[in-house]
Amino acid sequence: xxxxxxxxxxxxxxxxxxxxxxxxxxxxxxxxxxxxxxxxxxxxxxxxxxxxxxxxxxxxxxxxxxxxxxxxxxxxxxxxxxxxxxxxxxxxxxxxxxxxxxxxxxxxxxxxxxxxxxxxxxxxxxxxxxxxxxxxxxxxxxxxxxxxxxxxxxxxxxxxxxxxxxxxxxxxxxxxxxxxxxxxxxxxxxxxxxxxxxxxxxxxxxxxxxxxxxxxxxxxxxxxxxxxxxxxxxxxxxxxxxxxxxxxxxxxxxxxxxxxxxxxxxxxxxxxxxxxxxxxxxxxxxxxxxxxxxxxxxxxxxxxxxxxxxxxxxxxxxxxxxxxxxxxxxxxxxxxxxxxxxxxxxxxxxxxxxxxxxxxxxxxxxxxxxxxxxxxxxxx
Length: 380
Known about the structure:
This protein is 50% helix and 9% strand. By secondary structure, it is of the alpha/beta class.
């Protein structure tokens, strides 16, 4: 086995044991818009931190199966789903997962324990203190963001001031901050280490794709370019920027949070008839055991970016078999290329346009070169 693949196997073995994210770093509002779920839909979704999985409830699909190898992230996804369905007070629900804190988290979580899988209930009995101060300051990425905030000194008042400026002026206000980060030796050293990759959920394969797409030799250039793209977005509602730079969402704007936290979405989630399953498993293995027609929609986050081409081919081939003609696949990549063309499966999938281009333009994170929607045209 090639050395890069061995490194990624070691990365995956480590990553699945580390609590990295409390927030999904994909724009789940895009997912809700382009998946076009209905009461017949059956979704297989990579869990991540669970914002996207919880957000799918509002569409009332027949079933959602969330899969992840990381028990911390899968447990958080299950908690978000349970809270969206069981916490009838939107105020208390938002306090817990919008503000990320509760004065008595053990009491707040107790009513949810009966609807969680047993192992997830045990997990939250042991980890409820994550809500004592701020859930979103927890995990590796939360730690990195705290260090970043200490360095740049940006607060909510600064964001409210610059969000009204034209993009060019806004970028000019941020440029001294970017320059100081480029000069800051701890940052320059950190971004090229395995610890940083682990903390932001980028394995070695995706690192290579990032560097190739940006024509760069350093992740420092990749990171600062991503910051520059973020600054050009609608800062008022970009919850990724707010959380990174202030440690909080913009609570003054109802759309400046992941959709599952919004009041209307919460109302719909409370009455969702959707069956939800949580699978601590490999996506490849779950698909290998799947039966034709088991799922109609596949939400993959950026998981294909983690894989070499043979593994990408294997995963997509399994999706075509299990989903069958008409199944919809949503995926993200730091590269601009069409993955189904690259791995020789253009006879099984078609890229849906203009939906894919629109999704790429709307993606708030600005982490990805493309957000693509594919439709299966031929099963196995």
